[in-house]
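Milestone 3.1: sequence recovery, worked example.
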């Protein structure tokens, strides 16, 4: 089991599930980069660099021990970027969140096993700059397991 910690929340997920998903994404990016003859080399390199990151993370998960800190995984789209190589990847967090939402993760809050969470969406901004801040939490929206932003544009 891998561990994703956020404040009072501890989320445990099967490493093999993430590994399989990441290997599938790797294959998809490689297929796109090799089968689309009309792509320029910059685009091909973007896909290949992203694919290699997915493969590297899948390999890390394959040999990871129980309790592996999933925040150490780094996945992002694009060429190598020193800032994004520091960990705490939004893509990994999105996968963890999806597993939680589907009931495929063990969720603990303040040391107690919980089975349900709440979600609140708050409108932010106006005009073309509006969107929603989403928080997923147990009993206090300020103490959330996940927080992300959905931007609505034209």
């Amino acid at each position: 089991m891998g561990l994703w910690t956020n404040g009072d929340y501890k989320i445990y997920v099967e490493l093999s599930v993430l590994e399989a998903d990441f290997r599938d994404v790797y294959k998809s990016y490689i297929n796109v980069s090799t089968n689309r003859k009309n792509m320029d080399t910059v685009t091909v390199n973007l896909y290949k660099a992203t694919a290699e990151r997915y493969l590297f993370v899948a390999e890390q998960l394959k040999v990871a021990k129980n309790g592996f800190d999933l925040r150490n995984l780094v996945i992002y789209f694009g060429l190598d970027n020193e800032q994004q190589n520091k960990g705490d990847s939004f893509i990994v967090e999105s996968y963890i969140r999806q597993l939680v939402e589907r009931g495929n993760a063990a969720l603990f809050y303040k040391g107690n096993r919980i089975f349900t969470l709440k979600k609140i969406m708050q409108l932010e901004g106006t005009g073309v700059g509006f969107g929603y801040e989403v928080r997923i939490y147990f009993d206090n929206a300020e103490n959330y397991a996940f927080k992300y932003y959905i931007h609505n544009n034209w």
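Strands lie at 2-6, 9-13, 68-69, 106-109, 112-114, 118-124, 131-137, 144-151. The mean pLDDT is 90.
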